Amino acid sequence: MPDRRRHFLSGLLALAAAGPLAASPATEEKLKAIMQAAAARPPDAERLREREALLREAEAALAAGDAQTAEQGFDRAAMILHSADTEMGLVRSYMQSGQYRRALAFGAHTAGAHLDVVGGAALYAWLLHAGGQDAIARKLLADAQARAPSQPLVASVGRELASGAPHASGDMLLAPARLAPYSHSSHSAALPRGARLVAAGTLVDEGRMALVPARAVAGGRRLWVRNGLGQLVPATAMPVRGESGVALLRLGSPLPAPSMGTVPADAFPGAVAFAVAYAQTNDAGAAWPLLRTGFVGAATGAQGDRELDASMHRGLAPGGPVFDQAGRLAGIALPEGAGARLIAAPRLRTAFAGRAALPVSTEGGRLGPDAVYEAALRSTLQVIAAR
Amino acid sequence: MTLRLTAGAFAALAATLIACGSSGGSEPPFTVKLIGFNDYHGNLESPGTFGTSAAVPAAERPPVGGAEFMAAHVAKLKAQNPNNVVVGAGDSIGASPLISALFQDEPAVETLNRIGLEFNSVGNHEFDKGSAELLRLQNGGCKTGEPNSCKGSVAGTPVPFEGAKFKWLSANVISTATGKPLLPAYGIKEFKGVKVAFIGMTFKATPTVVTPTGVAGLEFRDEIQTVNNLIPELKGQGIEAIVVLVHEGGFQSGTVSDINGCEGALAGSGIATLVKGLDNAVDAVISGHTHAAYNCKLPNATGRAIPVTSSSSFGRVLTDMDLTIDPSTRDITAATATNRLVVRNDPAVPADAAVARIIAGYNTLVSPIANTVIGSIAAELPNSRTDGACNMPAGDLVADAMLAATQGPTFGSAVIALMNGGGVRNPGFTFASSPVGEGAGNVTYGEAFTTQPFGNSLVTMSLTAQDLKDVLEEQFAACKGQSATATRVMLPSNGFKYTWDGAKACGARVSNVTLRNGASTETIVDAAGAVPNPTKTYRVTMNNFMADGGDGYSTFLKGTSRLGGAQDIDALVAYLSGFKAPKAPYTLGTNPNDAGGSRINRTGTSTACPTGAVTS
Question: Before A176, cis peptide (omega within 30)?
Fold first, then answer.
C-alpha cells in the first residue's frame, strides 16, 4: 500500500474513531478533504485486518498487565501502518512498563506527526502535565483545540488540566488515547464496590512495605495499594508507633521497587523538590501520579521537618513522596493547615528503624523531573480502602 | 532540444576529459564510507530500547540512541575510513521531544552539527513552522519574540544560535516567489579528486501532511522528474557518483522487519515507485519518513538494482554503507550497506562527552521550575565590577545568601561569607523582565541558575583573624601564591568591610577589616594592617571550590571544623524568598550592617578594577 495512502487512512480511521465532526472550520475542512482523498483509494484489506487483530491482541495484553507482549504487538502493527492509534498504544505500553521518558519522547512524535488525530496531542499533554510540565501541556492542548475545536476529548482533557489535579474518567479511558494505566493484579480478589482512594503512599523496603498517612489507614478497613503501572496488591496496616503521623503497610506481595535511596541529611531550605501523589478523587480507578515541582521551605521544629508550599500538594491525596533533585526520597508530604509539611526522611529512618529499610543514598547527581517521575511511577502508591 | 543536448554532451565530455586528466586514469578503486540516518526528530535523549527486529523479545533489546551515542558511533565509523560522509534523509526536526521542541529545535541542530552531519534532505517536518523558520535554523540567529530561542549559553553552544553546519537540501521544494529551490538542490563532496553528489528532497505530497501555513509560498515538485532533470547538470560538472537522499519510504511485508531485511521488496511503497523511475546515473538512495528500517536493493528505471536504505528513526539505527569508486570512471561501482544499532551499552563506544554536556545543559532548562519567580530586586545587580575597589553588586547578593543559609546554629553558625567573583556568572541579576514575562524586578529560578550554574555546595569553616588577613592579601596577583597574572577580589557578605591599597607591597595591602553585626563593630585588621587578635576564630562560609583552594585562595585550606551545607543555588533561592512580593525587594546597601559605605574600599584614585598585576 502506498505510504501516503497509509497516512490518509490513519487519519480517516482515527477521526472516525473520535466521533463525528460537528463544526467545519478551515482546519477541519482540510481534514475532510484528506479523508475524501483517502476514501477514493482502495485499502489493502488483508493487511488492515492483520493490523486490526494485532491492535486488539496488544490492547488485551495491556489490559491484562502484560506490557511487554502489548509492546511487541503494537510494534508489529506499526510495521504495517504509520498510524497514530498504534503509536498511542506503544506510548501506553511504555507507560505501563514504567518507561515514562520513552513514552514522552514517542508521545511527542505522535502528537506532532499526526496533527489530524487529536488523541495523540491529548495523551502527550496529559503525560507532560503528569510529569510537571503544566504550562507546556496546556499550550500543546490549546494548539490541538485550535486545530480541531469540535473534538470532545480535547475539551475534556483541557477541563481536567485546568483543575490542576486531573483525573481521567468516562471517554478519557477509551483506547487508543486512554489516559490511565489498566488496573491489574496477580491476586484474584477484585476491588469491592465502594472501594475508594484514601491517600497516597510511598513504596519502601524493596517493595515489601509502604509508608502512608496514619490517619488514612486507621479504622480497621481493608486496604490495597496500587502503583502507577496499575499493579494492585492487598496490604495490611502495621501498628502505629511514634508521632510522625506516618504508618507502615505490609504488602500482600512485593511490588517492583525502583532503586531509590533516601537523602542522607535533612533537605536545605531553598532546595528544589519534587512532590508526587495522585489526584484526590472518590473512586479507586488506576491512574498515573502527578509530579509537582517546588522548593523546600523553612525548617519547622527540631526534627528536620520542613514547610512545603501549598501549590505543591493542592488537589492531591496526602502521603505522597517528596524527592530531591537527585531523585532521593526527601520525605513524605502530609497536609498541614492550608499547606503541606515535609516529614523528613532522616526522621522516618529513625521512626521505622528495624521495621522497614530506608537506605541512605549518597548519589547526588541532579536528575530532571522526567527521570524522577519515571522512578516515582513505581514508588508512588494509591492507597485504597473499603469496608 | 538537439542543440541543448549537444551542448550538454560537450560539457560532459569536457568534464570527463578534465577529470580523467586530473586522476591520471590509473588510480585503483577506493571506498567511501557513507553514514546515514533519518527521522531524528530532535531525539537528543535515548528513545529507549530497540531490537534488530520486532521478533527480538522486548527484554532482550538493548538501550539505543541518544545524541551523545550517535556522535560516538558516527565517530567510530568515520575512523574506519578517512573518506567518509554523513548524510540524513529528513525530519531531523519537528514532532520532537521537549528538550528540543521547547528551544525551537535549536538543540536538534546543534547536536546534529556535532554528530557530524553534512548533507540532509528536508522532510515534511522541516516545514512544520514554515520556510522562514527552516531558513533560520539553516543560517543561524535567534527567533524573534521567542523566549526559549538562543539558550545555548547554558548548554555550552554559541549564542546567537549557530545554525546548521550541515546543508539542508530541497531539490523539489521550490519557492514560488523565486522559482528556485528554497535550499540547494544538491551538495557535492570530493574524495581523492572524485566528486560525489548528494541530491536531497522530500516527497511531493508533503503539503497534505503539513499545516498550510508551513508550506505557504512553496511548490513541491515530482520527485522522479526532479532527480532525473538534475542528472545532466551534475554530469556537466563531471560528476558520475550520485546519491539521492529522500524523505520517502516504505514498509517491509510481514511484521518482523529485520533492520537489514527487505521482505517484500517494499512492494507498492512510495520509495519503490520512486526508485523505479530514477535515472540509471543514481547509485544509491538513503530514504526515510516511515520510521521503518530496511536494507534493500531495488530496481531503477533500467531495472538495475541499487541500494535503498532506511534506518528506523530517533537515532536508533545508523546505515553504514561502503561505496566503491572507480577513479577512472568517477562512478560508484559497488555498494554494500549494513544497518547498525546505536547501542548505548558497548564499552568500546563510550558517549561523546561534549554532546552529553549539551544534553545536560538543555535538560536543566527544561525544568518546569525555570520560570518560577523566587524573589525580587530593586535595581540591576550586574556581575561586573562597578568601581576601582572591585565591588560587584551581584556578588554581594550571592554572598548575603550564602551567609543567610549558614548562620543558623545547625547550619554552620557563620558570621562572614566570601564569594569568588568568577563564580558569579553573566549577566548577574537583571532588573528588566526577561522574555518569559516574569515582570520587572522579579528574579526567576532560571535567571538565578544562570548566575549560579556550577552546583557548588557551601562550606563553613573556622578561620583565624590572621587567616582572614592572609586570604584577603592573596587575592592580588603574585601575592602569597596567587597567580602572577590574576587578581581575584572576593565579594564579602554584609557587615564585612575592608580597604586595600595596590601601591603597597604584597602582604601589606589590606587594612581596616571590620565586621559589623547590628550595633557592634569589631576590628579584625586595623588601619595599619596589623591584626590585633590574630588567633581569634570566625566561622566563614565559601563555596566548596574556594574551600579546596580554588582561584588561588590557598589559605582556606587551613580552615578547621568544616561543615558542608546547602548548594549555592538553594541558598540563593531561600534568601530571595525573603524578598518576594509582597515583601520588599532586595536593595543593595539597605542592610543595616552595610551602613557607612561600600564593602570593599580602595586607597587611591584608580577607578578600574584590576584583573592582573596591581601597581597602584
Answer: yes
Does residue B36 sit in the same domain as residue B63? yes
> Of B364, B391, B413, which closes a domain?
B364
Using the Cβ of A295 and the Cβ atoms of chain B, whether some distance falls under 8 Å is answered with yes
Please state the pTM of the whole predicted model.
Answer: 0.80
Task: Classify B73 in phi/psi space as left (phi over 0), alpha (psi -120 to 50) or beta.
Answer: alpha
* ipTM tops 0.95: no
The mean per-residue pLDDT over the stretch A73-77 comes to 92
A100 touches chain B (CB under 8 A): no
d(CA B33, CA B332): 12
Residue A146 exposed, middle or buried by CB count within 10 Å (0-12, 13-18, 19+):
exposed
What is the extent of the structural domain holding B58? 32-364
Q: Nearest C-alpha of chain B: how many angstroms from A359? A: 21
CB nearest B574 (choices: A99, A132, A269):
A269
Report pLDDT for A189. 63
CATH of the domain at B245: 3.60.21.10
The DSSP secondary-structure symbol of B372 reads -
B574–A268 CB contact, under 8 Å: yes
Q: Distance between CA A193 and CA A199 in Å, rounded?
A: 18
Task: Count Cβ atoms below 10 Å from residue B229 Cβ, excluding itself.
Answer: 15
Q: Is A39 contained in some domain?
A: yes
Instruction: Count CA atoms closer than 13 A to B496's CA, side-chain side.
Output: 24
Q: pLDDT tens for residues A143-188?
A: 999 988 889 999 999 999 999 999 999 999 999 999 999 999 987 6
Task: Note whether A369 contacts B250, CB cutoff 8 Å.
Answer: no
Q: Which residues contact B616 (CB under 8 A, 6 or more apart)?
A: B502, B503, B604, B606
Residue A161 domain boundaries: 3-173
Instruction: Enumerate residues 33 to 72 of chain A having a beta carbon within 8 A of any beta carbon in chain B.
Output: 34, 37, 50, 54, 68, 71-72
Residue A133 at interface with chain B, using a CB cutoff of 8 Å: yes
Gap between the Cα atoms of B416 and A136, Å rounded: 42
Cβ distance of A268 and B96 shorter than 8 Å:
no
pLDDT at A28: 45
Nearest CA in chain B to A28: B211
Tell me the sheet residues that pair with B196: B189, B241
Is the peptide bond preceding residue A149 cis, with omega within 30 degrees of 0?
A: no
Mutate: best of A6, A66, A104, A268, partner B, most B CBs <10 A: A268
Mean pLDDT over B603-611 rounds to 92
Give the nearest chain A residue to B365 (CA atoms): A368
Backbone phi, psi, residue A190, to 5°? -85, 165
Cβ–Cβ of B59/A108 closer than 8 Å? Answer: no
Domain endpoint, select from A173, A203, A236: A173
Query: What is the average pLDDT score of chain B?
Result: 93
